[in-house]
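Researcher: Please translate sequence to structure tokens.
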Amino acid sequence: MFQALYEPTRGPSARGRLLLFFAFLAMSVLAATGEALAHAVAEGDKGYIQETSGVNILAFLYLGAKHMVTGYDHLLFLFGIIFFLYRMKHIALYVSLFAIGHSTTMLLGVFFDFGINSYIIDAIIGFSIVYKALDNLGAYQRWFGFQPNTKIATLLFGFCHGFGLATKIIEYDISPDGLLPNLLAFNVGVEIGQLLALGAILIVMGFWRRSDSFSKHAYTANVVMMTAGFLLIGYQLTGYAVS
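Model: Translation complete:
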């Protein structure tokens, strides 16, 4: 798909390299700010989760939606998924696969108290961003001569994203009183947040695709996304090494 727009030897323009530099700088600042910006629930919300008990549908709806629209790792992967999708039926299919994946592991992981080391799962989530950026760049066809199944990859990485959130919620020791209704409400909130974020991304992408700059800077945008993924991987693996 992407090879038709770019030859493998062609790199970004001077303007694109400047954009890449500032994006790299911004992601470095994000990585340096600590766990508050990682794949985690905000500290204030963490306190609420730890202290509350009983069924709190509206509160967990809000927390789920807030997590999605402020979770830059989710949004980067979502951005990568829809980058070259133009038809709504294709967008709906891939976003639904992602939603099924992260909903399944989030619900089951918390309900059955099964988590994965938070640094490892967040590094895998960073890898999912790198994977999708390389997919958009047509790297697998050039390097290996075949295209991995993007639907299966989206579902599998959805599972990983769900485990990331489940691990954090387990660490925050959510009350078993009202656990299932609260988890379902949280998950519905996540899906609402995902739809809101997707709508905003599609509006921006719609304007961008109608301009000449899309074909000029699509390469750079995916390199920036890949760089962000590598930064997330490095940050999480460093945290794992020193923890």
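Researcher: Any highlights?
Model: Confidence is low (pLDDT under 50) at residues 1-12, 28-38.
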